[in-house]
Amino acid sequence: MAALVVAVLFAGVTLLAPQALTRLNRLWYDLGMLLGKITSPVVLGVIFFALITPVALALRLFGRDYLKMKKRSVESYWVDRSPPGPPSDSFKNQY
Known about the structure:
This protein is mainly alpha-helical. The protein has helices at residues 2-16, 22-61.
């Protein structure tokens, strides 16, 4: 019930005198920006170290090389396609 009273009070102030909430709006915005600066690196770090790193270590442990970047004695790392691909005239008038 108290939350409803506070919500109605804020709605009234917002409709009648929005400039009165300018300072509160700025403080709320600054709090959101501060929380974003703290939580984003933490969440991304957890995702990286809990998900991506173990997968990469497992792939390296089993010798997978999906990018075929292991050192080879070749002149080029280009991979020949077989069949060579779509005909060049298929890219005309795409729309």
